[in-house]
Amino acid sequence: MISVNLSQGTSLPGWTTVLCLLVGATAACLWFRFPLTRSTRALSSVKPTSDSTRSARSGVSLRQVNLDKNEANTDIDIIAIHGLDTKSPDTWVWVDPNDPNNTVNWLADRRMLPSRVGAARIFTCDWPADLRQQSSVPTTLHESAQSLRDSIQHLKANTTRPILFIASCLGGIILIKALEIDNQHTKDNADSPSLTRTTRGVVFLATPFRGTAFKNMPGLLLKALAALQDRTVTALIDYTLGATPDLDELTKGFITLTKNHNYQVVVFWEARNTVLLRKFHLAWIVSTWILLAWLVALTSAWLLDLFSPWLLVFFLLWLPVFLSCQPQLLVNKYSATLSDFKTQRLDRPHVMMNKFAHSNCTNECKKDCTESDDFGHVSRKIEVMLKMIREGSPLEQADGWIRKRHYTQEKLKIERLSGDTLSMDRCYINLAIIGEPRENPEKGSETDAAPHKSPFSLTARLKVETPEKNIQVELSSLFDPRKDSEGQTTNPRRILIHGRAGVGKTTLCKKMVHEFTRRSGEFRKWNELFDRILWVPLRRLKAWSSPLYNLEGLFCYEYFDQHLNYSILAKELFRTVDSNGQKTLFILDGLDEISQLLDDNHPKSSLLKHLLNQPSVIITSRPHVSLPRGVHSPDLILETVGFYPAQVVEYLRATFIDAKTVEDIESYFQMHQLVQGLVRIPVQLDALCYTWNSFEDKTIPGTMTAMYKAIEENLWKKDIVRLEKRTQRQIRVVRRPEISNSAEDEVQLLEILAFTGMHSDVIDFEPRHRDAISEQYNPTGTNFFLDEMLGHLSFVRTSDPSSKDRDRNYHFIHLTFQEYFAARYFIRRWKAKQQLNCLQLSGGNRNYIEPATFLQEHKYDPRYDIFWRFVAGLLDADGEALSFFQTIEKEPRDLLGPTHQRLVMHCLSEVERKESNFTGLRARLENQLEQWLLFECDFMGSSILAREMECPEQVLVSTLKQASEGARSIFLDSLSRRTAVPSSIIKIASSWLNDCASKRLCIAVLGLLRHQRHGLPQEMLQGIAARLEDQDADVRRAAIEALQGRVDLPEEILQGVAARLEDQDAFVRGAAIRALQGRADLPEEMLQGIAARLEDQSAFVRPAAIRALQGRADLPEEMLQGIAARLEDQELVVRRAAIEALQGRADLPEEMLQGFAARLGDQDTYVRRAAIKALQGRADLPEGMLQGIAARLEDQDAYVRGGAIEALQGRADLPEEMLQGIAARLEDQHEYVWLRAIDALLNQAELSLNVLSPYVKSFCKALLRKSFEKHLYWHASDRGFIGVNLTHIPLSGSQHEGKEAVKLLLKNGATTVAMETDSRYYT
Predict the structure, then answer these.
(1) 195 CB-near residues (< 8 Å, 6+ apart)
(2) Conformational region of residue 1145, where left means phi above 0, alpha means psi within -120 to 50, and beta covers everything else
(3) What is the reported pLDDT for 1144?
(4) Which residues of 203-234 are buried (b: 16+ CB within 10 A; e: fewer)?
(5) What is the Cα–Cα distance from 1303 to 1321, expressed in whole angstroms?
């Protein structure tokens, strides 16, 4: 046993001296050879790849390293963040240990990462990461993360471009802290740029989520090394020493964030050891050579008898350092990985986790080289992440999937009866407001005698009449502001659209989706209002089965069932809709088809009502369905109407290349007014176009029934080929009986389906309806299946072609086709003298009834009106109309009479006029109808029956001839309300103009001719002109109105009209002015004649003269002066007309502008409004006029006050008192006014705090309300400003400058607002 004697050997002072020399020499070597401020691998040879952009405030800089890319040709940014105690680009650069000049930056080298990322910019982010800081206050994690977040937001110009981060070591911890800070900021400021939203993925390279091996390093050593250079150790070192509660919370929050935003995350962990002291260039202290040196020294000292206890003490002090600082994993797998993320091992030490030498190994590589493998692991993961990022965020993926994969061309296709696809440009969708009051035209206007259609006419029943202008709505302007019934301006967002079957409700939905996804310029506002359209065919909900019915499940079922990540996309879309529903427009198609699901006890009821209550929604339905209880009322109710006449012509021209064919069809329409009304139904026009060419060698149908028979024949030709019953070659020569025989079973089944549906009031045939029909009607000898057969027929369609045949609902292409086939069933039974099989689909009850009995029971039922027309037409074609009309005439009869006459009249319109056994009865029926027309004129003072297009022409002529002079006037007045009057009537009536002794009759004839705009022969025009000299003023006026608007008037007739400008009757003079108004080729003397009427004594004539001169660019100065003189007129309507006539002219002299200014104080509200509008936008107004406008800020009328604000808005030189007047309007009670006021203030180049101070409460409240609608914020920095989109409006003042003044205003204003709202939400 060896004993140590402390008194032996070298003395303590000697060993102390030796030890001090040893330590001093070591320190000197470290100081001079390994400066602490220099990296062990100097990269002086590595030149910067670009100029960096640095935030002076934070010291953070972004440097792009692949300079061949720019923002225009890239779509993603990659930002690489280094770790602690390093910098960019050094941390990303591999240095050849044998040749320091041989370096590779894998982020910049074109052979490395840039070759793998495609159209992406790559940046390095340099942040202050010194382990030993010069500052006496250590930098905290929050400070570093805040600095990183602010700087990236500031330095990146495009705040919406997706970002993929590559975070090395502690840089990953700082990044997730920055995202945590940004996420909280985004919650508080939803409209501000968000790093959280733009981040799409993160690659972590050895990030210590649970600390590092530095926890084994003596903390005293780190502090001592830092103290050698008068520095402090950064507080960030705490996050390397081990897992802490703060670090655990941070990582948990990041995991939640990745789930909420679906980040792509991959973590890489190191597999080779690191010598910890190498960081401080002290690795040699714990090397095996030093251990060997110690052992040699101890042994030598012992053997040479130089051993000292102090040598042993120092060895024992060194030994723990040696043991703790042995090579080990700096960030082990446990710390570098999280169970929620994909992980990948890299066979390299920590210092090399962010450096790669090459992408492909060569023969020069060492045998165990892993560079290419490790780089491949990292680059492939990045490639996969970029691919997923380019596919978009979950919301972008959802929107893209719906737009590209759901709204496919096939799904949005509009198929014509021919099988061809109809271009969306030719899909005319017309809408009209329901319940909007009609305009009330002034006396004498040209619209006061507009045609009034009969509510019993075919066009009225089919809802294809042209609505009045004031209720027409363009599809593209659906969401434009409009006034409601109370005159208040609203912004409709919830819209209900009614429409009958076949008028294009589903086409309307497809049109809306098509225009929105195509981003059509005409629909630009839709794209501004909404981020997406979600079209939900409600009928599909019936087949949907789920344990829980909610929006997320609906999105999975309807849109994403074919997507691999259906759950993620549905969840993200639901989250977006739930948080900001106004930006998503729901189109709920076919409410009438799922009415049974709205029952409160149905499991889908709650979801449906939630859908119907969406803030932005369009609901389509047939007219008989109303919104259920618990659903908010719509902002706007519309109905779909048929094509307008001009659209019919456009459709024809697009369908037929030959102009002669188009002319022939138009002529046919003119001769057959009923057909002209029918073809305004889109599917009817398509059917006629499909059939037209078959009329080449045949008589063109003259009745509605004959036209439907022709259409039916042509469609069966197509269908029997699809049913494989005839070949295409056989169809070219087939005869009608052969067609009927080929499809006999299908025809009968369609007839039964149609009649049963009519009897049960069913137009949409569900599977249960077809089941009931199949059970009751099973034609013997047939071998087809009903569902399969319906799918091959042109007469029926399904609303959901994507579903299985068995689950589909079917409806006839238009209700009239169902009525046509139902009539065919009726006459089949009528002719066979068989009972009708009346099956009630709702309850399954069935009864049999004789056709004649059915006729007697339902002949006055309005639901069967068109049905009876078809019955009459079909029986007439078979020569059996007589018995039908005889049965109609039998009891029970309408005791009142008009309804019976209307039924007879409608049925007669379908019976061709020819010699038959029906001729005698027809004559008696028409004679009876004549008597009723005469009775109606006498009893009612008008004739509604005569207005109907179905009234036979012979009856009208006969009635007119035998009527008394007084009855003729009434009768002609009624006929003038028709859309078209037979030429025979016009010819008879015009002949009476020459020798008409009755004033009333003369006016009635002129009124009739007034509405015949086309084709009046010259002799009729001369007859009208002769009445310009009539002794009676009312006749003269009627003659002028009959000539008004005709472009083909000869010069002498125009001179005759102009002569009436001097008429002694004011209404005649006014009519003459209106007749000449709008003609561009008026000679000077006629213009002078109109201008002379500016001084007319009648207040009715003067405004008419002003309007006639309005808009003419070449008016001489004296006429302008004459109009300006009317600004002082005693009649307000004249003053208003004068202002409106002059307001659009830019070259008005100052005296006319003074005339406008004088009207600012007019006693009439409308004149004051017009005066302000006339002065608005003129840049050179003198101070006095501006003062006059400013005085109107106190006007009693809200629209005058608002107009005054608009007139002052945007003027840069407004004095402070006027701005104060505008600011005072912030406290106006009328919303229209204070909205104009805030807009005017936000349009100023600078705002004075002196102006705002008295009204700061109202100002803050107005800003707060508008900030929900647009990008608007109040920034209180060193220099306060208000931000409006990209514009900053500085705040200035004299009493409290800069930031203090802004804070004072915010304190006063915002506190008040907070008291009035909820301080939990506004502080």
Answers:
(1) 149, 152, 153, 163, 178, 179, 182
(2) beta
(3) 74
(4) bbbbbbbbbbbbeebeeeebeebbeeeebbbb
(5) 19
CA–CA distance, 1059 with 14 (Å, rounded to integer): 139
Q: How many CB atoms lie within 10 A of CB 888?
A: 18
Instruction: Identify the three-state secondary structure at position 473.
Output: strand
pLDDT band at 875 (very low <50, low <70, confident <90, very high): very high
Alpha-carbon distance of 1091 to 1072, in angstroms, equals 13
The answer on pLDDT for 885 being more than 50 is yes
Task: Report residue 911's pLDDT band, with 50, 70 and 90 as the boundaries.
Answer: very high
Contacts of 30 by beta carbon, 8 Å cutoff, 6+ apart: 281, 282
Return the amino acid letter for 1015.
G
3-state secondary structure of 1291: strand
Distance CA 915, CA 445 (A): 48
Contacts of 449 (CB under 8 A, 6+ apart): 976, 977, 1007, 1010, 1011
Residue 29, phi-psi category: left (phi > 0), alpha (psi -120 to 50), beta (remainder):
alpha
For 179, 336, 959, the CA distances from 342, given in Å and listed in that order, are 20, 11, 92
Count CB neighbours of 757 within 10 A. 24
DSSP of 1069-1102: HHHHHHHHTT-TT--HHHHHHHHHGGG-S-TTHH
In this structure, what DSSP letter does residue 762 have?
-
Amino acid at 1111: G
Assess whether the previous peptide bond of 89 is cis (omega < 30° from 0): yes
Instruction: Please compute Rg for the chain using Cα positions.
Output: 45
At which residue do the structure tokens 């830019």 appear?
1146
1065 φ/ψ sector (left φ>0, alpha ψ -120 to 50, else beta): beta
Closest by CA to 169, choosing from 357, 353, 326, 342, is 353
Question: pLDDT averaged over the chain?
Answer: 80
C-alpha dihedral sign at 262, 264, 269, 275: negative
Element (H, E) at 906: helix 898-908
Q: Determine which of 169-183, 502-516, 881-895, 1244-1258 has the lowest per-residue pLDDT on average.
A: 1244-1258
Euclidean distance between CA atoms 1009 and 990, whole angstroms: 8
Collapsed DSSP state (helix, strand, coil) of residue 269:
strand
Contact 423, 511 (CB under 8 A): no
Query: Where do the H-state alpha helices sit in 391-476?
Result: 394-401, 458-461
My answer on whether omega of the bond before 892 falls inside 30° of 0, hence cis, is yes
d(CA 480, CA 525): 9
Q: What is the pairing mode between strands 1287-1292 and 1281-1284?
A: antiparallel
Q: How big is the CA angle at 1249 (ends 1243 and 1251), to the nearest 5 degrees? A: 70
Band (609; pLDDT cuts 50, 70, 90): very high
In sequence order, which ranges of 693-814 are alpha helices (DSSP H)?
A: 704-722, 728-731, 736-742, 744-759, 767-776, 786-790
Report the alpha-carbon distance of residue 532 to residue 585 in Å, rounded. Answer: 6
- CB of 810 closer than 8 Å to CB of 790: yes
Give the three-state DSSP class for 490: strand
- Give the tokens for residue 283: 């690795």
User: Distance between CA 783 and CA 1050 in Å, rounded?
Assistant: 72
- DSSP letter at 402? I
pLDDT bin (cut points 50, 70, 90) of residue 20 is very low
Q: What is the DSSP string of 630-679?
A: TSPPPSEEEEEE---HHHHHHHHHHH-S-HHHHHHHHHHHHH-HHHHHHT
Residue 851 to residue 829: CA distance in whole angstroms: 7
**Residue 1174 contacts residue 1157 (beta carbons within 8 Å):** no
Q: Give residue 1257's pLDDT.
A: 78
Residue 781 corresponds to which tokens in the numbers above? 């000898």
